[in-house]
Amino acid sequence: MKSFFISFEGPDGAGKSTVVAQVVRELAPRLKTQYLVTREPGGSEIAEKIRQMILDPANSKMAAKTEALLYAASRSQHMAEVILPALAAGKMVFSDRFVDSSLAYQGVGRDLGIAQVKQINDFATSGVEPDLTLFLDVKPEVGLARINRLRPHAEDRLEQEKLTFHKKVYQGYQEICQANPQRIKIVDASRNFTQVVADCIKIIENSLPIDFIKD
Questions:
Q1: What's the pTM?
Q2: Which one of 45, 110, 199, 208 has the fewest CB atoms closer than 10 angstroms to its CB?
Q3: What's the domain count of the chain?
Q4: 8 SS3 class
Q5: CATH of the domain at 145
Q6: For 63-102, how does the pLDDT look when each residue is reduced to its tens digit (9 = 90+)?
C-alpha cells in the first residue's frame, strides 16, 4: 500500500506548528487517503517524556552528545510507535520536524558534525527519510523576535540559546537544503501566513502521486 511522508523544518520561530495545522486543514478534504499529523521531539507517550527532558530549561548542564542521543532515542520510539505503523498502513504522515532538525541543531549548532549525527539517526530510523520536506525559511533574528512577542518568558532550553547558536543552526539548514534539493523545498516564511500556507499546499500537490489527491 502506497504511503507518503512529509516533514516540515525550520529554525525556531518559523511558524511550523501553525503552518502544519493550517496546511492539513485545507488539504484534508481533498485527500483520498487517511493521514496522520505528529511532531518531534515527541509524538508518542515515551517520546514526549524524552522531549520534556530535552527542552527543560533546568537541564542547562546537558552535554551536546547527550542531547543528540536523546533526540535520536525519542525519534526511534516515535518511529516504532507512530510513523512506521502509519506508513505501513498506507497513510500520509505530516511531521513537525524530523532528522534534519538534529543535523542542523546538534550536527552544526552543537558542532558534533552532520555525518556523526546522521549516523545515530540512521540507526534510530532504520534509514527512513521523508518523501518531501518543506523548509520554512526565516532568519534567526526574525524567528526569535516572533517567539519573544508571542511567548515572552516561556522559551524552552534551545530557544533560550544565544543568537550565535541560532545563526549556526540556520547555516546548518542552508547546507542541508543545498545537499538535498530533490527532497527539500524552500518556502519563504517571512511573508504573510496565508501566502506561506498556499505555497506549502502547492508544493505538496505538485509532489503527491496522482492517486493521493482528488481533482
A1: 0.94
A2: 45
A3: 1
A4: strand
A5: 3.40.50.300
A6: 999 999 999 999 999 999 999 999 999 999 999 999 999 9
